[in-house]
Automatic annotation (TrEMBL):
Phylogenetic classification of the source organism: Eukaryota, Metazoa, Ecdysozoa, Arthropoda, Hexapoda
Protein name: Ribosome-releasing factor 2, mitochondrial isoform X2
Gene Ontology process terms (BP): mitochondrial translation; ribosome disassembly
GO molecular function, one term: GTPase activity
Residues in coiled coil: none
Domain Tr-type G: 37-319
InterPro entries xrefs: EF-G-like_DII, EFG_II, EFG_III, EFG_III/V, G_TR_CS, P-loop_NTPase, Ribosomal_Su5_D2-typ_SF, Ribsml_uS5_D2-typ_fold_subgr
GO CC annotations on file: mitochondrial matrix
Mitochondrion found in the keyword field: yes
Keywords: GTP-binding, Mitochondrion, Nucleotide-binding, Protein biosynthesis
Length: 648
C-alpha cells in the first residue's frame, strides 16, 4: 500500500512538471490574450459516476495539456487532486483548468456529482457561460442530473448533453433522449448517432456533416478519422443518418425562424447546408430553446474531440452575455465575482474570480464591494487544478486565481475602487428606479447558502488542540460555505452542520490528515423538513374586538407543491379574483408574507420547517381599522388550517 501511494505521488508530480512545460499552458500564460469571442467558460455537471472526471481527463490529454491520461480508479487524475478524492474515487471539490483547443481557450470547471456537494455546483454555476451535462448512457437522467439541471436553469445556462458510457452492453441512446425530454422537460437535438457492430460501439456518425467518425485505439483515440458516408457504400447507415438529419432539421426549424425561412425558400429538408444547421443550433442553444446531444465513451476514448468541437460551435462566449447583464455598468473598469476559495500550504488562501469587466493585474489593490473594504492582490495566477501559473495580468472573460486576500469570501464582488463601485451602482439605479431589491442583491453576496441537513458535535483530542481546531474550521468554512460551524452555549460544544453524512465524514478526515488534529465526532442528527404532495385549499375568517375597534379578516389560501426549492407567495389573478387581489395595499401584503413565513417554520407533523411549497392567495377581505398584526395572524392560522385539512 505504501509503495502504491509513493508511485501515485511520483506519477502526479511528473505530470505537474510536464504541465509547466507544456505548450498549451505556456500559450495561456503569454501576454497576447485569446480573443474574447474564443473563450469558453464551461462546467461539467452530472450525477455521480456518470464519467465527468474521466471526460475532463480526456479533454486535457487531447488538448495537449497532459502527456498521459490518468484514471479515476488509479487516483491520478488532474482535477481530483485532493487526497480524499483519490482515495474515494469521487469528486469532492470543483477544480478549474485552463487549456487551448483549436485556437480557443477553455476555462473548464469539473464539479462534484454527489448530492452532499451541491454547494460546490451552486458556486460554480453563477460564473459559467455554458455547461456540459454528462449522462450515463445506460441510466439516462438520474437524481443528481435533475438537481444540477434545475440549478443551471436558475442561472439560465445554455447546455450540451453528452451521453457517455455508450460502450456498455445496456447503453441505450434513444432511451437517454426520452429520459431527458420527459424528466428535464427540454427539447433534445441529437447531432450524432452511434455506430454499433454486434452491439459494440465502433464509431459515431455526425448527422450534420454526414460523416462517420472513428477513433484510433492504438493511440488512445488521439487520431480522429473522418469519412463521408454514401448510400452506395452503406445503404442502411445512410438511411438511418439521413432520417435523423431530416428530423433534426425539422425540429430546428420549429425553434429557429431563420432556418424555417431557408427551408421554405428551398422547399426541402434535405438541401440545408451543414453550416446553416450549425448556425441554427448555436442560436437555439444560446437562446435556451433546445439542447444539442452528443455521445461517446470517454473511458474507451470515443467521442471526446467532437464534444470539444461542439463546445466551440454551440456554447456562448463572454460576448454572448445578455445585453441586460448588470456588469456592463462597470464600463471598462474591473468587475469580478468570487466563486471559490482554497487554502494552499505554500501560498495561503487562493481566491478564484470570474472577471466580467476590465482586467486584473498582479499587485493591484482590489475594492470589495460586498464588504466595503480594500485588499491587496499579492500574486495572480491561472489555475490547472492544484497547479498555478503566475501571470502579470488576466483579461476580461477569464478565470483568475489570486493570493493575498484575507477577508474576501465566496460570492463577493470586487472592483478597482469605491468610486468605481459607486458610479456603477448609481448607473444601475438610474436605469432600474423601481428595482431596488434587484440592485441591492447584485452588489451583495452572490452565494445562496443552503440549510444543513446533518448535525454533529466535534471535539479535539485535548484542550491544547482547541485553538488549532478552531483555525482549521475557519479555513474549511471559508472554502466551503455549506459547512456550518456554531458553538452550543448549553453544552459548550462545537457543532458542525453539513449537507450529508459523507460531507461531514470528509471534513473529519481532512482535519485529521491536513491539519493533523485527531478529532472525534458525536452522533449524527438529521435536520428533518416537511412538505406536501398534493394541492390543498381552505378559507379562514377571524374576528377580534379590541376596545372600540373590530378587527376582521377573511382569507382564502392554498398550498401547492413547488420543487424548485424556494417558497413563493403567488397571487390568484383569475377573472373572479383579480379585482380583489389587485386592491390589496402593499403594507397588508407584507403582513400576509410575514404570517406565511411564520406558519412555514413549523409543520404540523414533526414541527419541522415546511419546504418545497408554493402559497397562493385567492381572496382577502380586511375590515377598516384592522391591524397588520391581525392580518399576519390570520395568514398564519389559514396556512395551518390548510395543512390540517390536508391531513384529514
Amino acid at each position: 500500500m505504501l509503495k502504491h501511494n509513493i508511485l501515485k505521488t511520483s506519477w502526479c508530480k511528473l505530470r505537474t512538471r510536464y504541465m509547466h512545460k507544456n505548450a498549451s499552458l505556456s500559450e495561456a500564460s503569454k501576454s497576447k490574450e485569446c480573443a474574447i469571442s474564443r473563450i469558453r467558460n464551461i462546467g461539467i455537471l452530472a450525477h455521480i459516476d456518470a464519467g465527468k472526471t474521466t471526460t475532463t481527463e480526456r479533454m486535457l490529454y487531447y488538448s495537449g495539456l497532459i502527456r498521459n491520461m490518468g484514471e479515476v480508479h488509479h487516483g491520478n487524475t488532474v482535477t481530483d487532486y485532493m487526497e480524499q478524492e483519490r482515495q474515494r474515487g469521487i469528486t469532492i471539490t470543483s477544480a478549474a483548468v485552463t487549456f487551448n483547443w483549436k485556437d480557443y481557450r477553455f476555462n473548464l470547471i469539473d464539479t462534484p456529482g454527489h448530492i452532499d456537494f451541491t454547494m460546490e455546483v451552486e458556486q460554480t454555476l453563477q460564473i459559467l457561460d455554458g455547461a456540459i451535462v454528462v449522462l450515463d448512457g445506460s441510466a439516462g437522467v438520474e437524481a443528481q442530473t435533475l438537481t444540477v439541471s434545475r440549478q443551471a436553469d436558475r442561472y439560465n445556462i445554455p447546455r450540451i448533453i453528452y451521453v457517455n458510457k455508450m460502450d456498455r452492453a445496456d447503453a441505450d441512446f434513444d432511451m437517454s433522449l426520452r429520459s431527458v425530454e420527459s424528466k428535464l422537460n427540454v427539447e433534445t437535438l441529437p447531432i450524432q448517432i452511434p455506430v454499433l457492430n454486434a452491439g459494440v460501439l465502433e464509431g459515431i456518425v455526425d448527422v450534420i456533416t454526414m460523416e462517420k467518425l472513428t477513433f484510433d485505439k492504438k493511440h488512445q483515440g488521439m487520431n480522429l478519422i473522418k469519412a463521408k458516408i454514401f448510400e452506395s457504400d452503406d445503404g442502411r447507415l445512410w438511411d438511418v443518418a439521413s432520417e435523423k438529419r431530416r428530423l433534426l432539421t425539422d425540429k430546428l426549424s420549429s425553434l429557429d425562424d431563420k432556418l424555417a425561412d431557408i427551408i421554405i425558400e428551398q422547399e426541402s429538408l434535405d438541401n440545408v447546408q451543414p453550416q446553416m444547421l450549425v448556425d441554427s443550433l448555436r442560436r437555439v442553444t444560446i437562446g435556451r430553446k433546445g439542447v444539442p446531444v452528443t455521445l461517446g465513451s470517454s473511458y474507451k476514448n470515443i467521442g471526446v474531440q467532437p464534444l470539444m468541437d461542439s463546445v466551440i460551435l454551440y456554447l456562448p462566449s463572454p460576448t454572448n452575455l445578455d445585453q441586460l447583464n448588470p456588469y456592463r455598468y462597470f464600463a471598462n473598469n474591473l468587475a469580478a465575482r468570487v466563486f471559490k476559495i482554497v487554502h494552499d500550504k505554500q501560498r495561503g488562501p487562493i481566491t478564484f474570480f470570474r472577471i466580467y469587466s476590465g482586467n486584473m493585474k498582479k499587485g493591484q489593490k482590489l475594492y470589495n464591494v460586498t464588504r466595503e473594504q480594500s485588499e491587496q492582490c499579492t500574486r495572480l495566477y491561472v489555475a490547472c487544478a492544484d497547479d498555478y501559473k503566475e501571470m502579470a495580468e488576466v483579461s476580461y472573460g477569464n478565470i483568475a486565481a489570486v493570493s493575498g486576500l484575507k477577508s474576501t469570501i465566496t460570492g463577493d464582488l470586487v472592483t478597482a475602487s469605491a468610486s468605481v463601485a459607486n458610479r456603477a451602482k448609481q448607473s444601475m439605479l438610474e436605469e432600474n428606479p423601481n428595482r431596488l431589491d434587484y440592485v441591492d442583491n447584485f452588489f451583495a453576496s452572490g452565494v445562496k447558502l443552503l440549510d444543513p441537513v446533518f448535525f454533529c458535535s466535534i471535539e479535539p483530542p485535548s484542550l491544547s488542540a482547541q485553538s488549532a481546531l478552531e483555525t482549521a474550521l475557519q479555513e474549511l468554512q471559508r472554502e466551503d460555505p455549506s459547512l456550518h460551524v456554531k458553538n452550543d452555549l448549553e453544552t459548550e460544544q462545537i457543532v458542525l452542520g453539513g449537507m450529508g453524512e459523507l460531507h461531514i465524514d470528509i471534513i473529519k478526515q481532512r482535519i485529521r490528515t491536513e491539519y493533523k488534529i485527531d478529532v472525534d465526532l458525536g452522533p449524527l442528527q438529521i435536520a428533518y423538513k416537511e412538505t406536501i404532495q398534493d394541492p390543498v385549499k381552505d378559507t379562514l375568517s377571524v374576528e377580534h374586538r379590541v376596545g372600540q375597534t373590530t378587527h376582521k379578516v377573511t382569507i382564502t389560501m392554498s398550498l401547492i407543491p413547488n420543487y424548485e426549492g424556494k417558497t413563493k407567495l403567488l397571487l390568484d389573478r383569475s377573472s373572479e379574483t383579480a379585482s380583489n387581489i389587485d386592491s390589496i395595499h402593499p403594507r397588508v401584503m407584507s403582513a400576509i408574507k410575514n404570517g406565511v413565513n411564520a406558519a412555514l417554520l413549523h409543520g404540523l407533523k414533526l414541527s419541522c420547517p415546511v419546504i418545497n411549497v408554493g402559497v397562493k392567495l385567492h381572496w382577502l377581505e380586511v375590515a377598516r381599522g384592522t391591524s397588520d398584526t391581525i392580518v399576519s395572524a390570520a395568514a398564519l392560522q389559514c396556512i395551518r388550517k390548510v395543512v390540517t385539512s390536508r391531513r384529514k
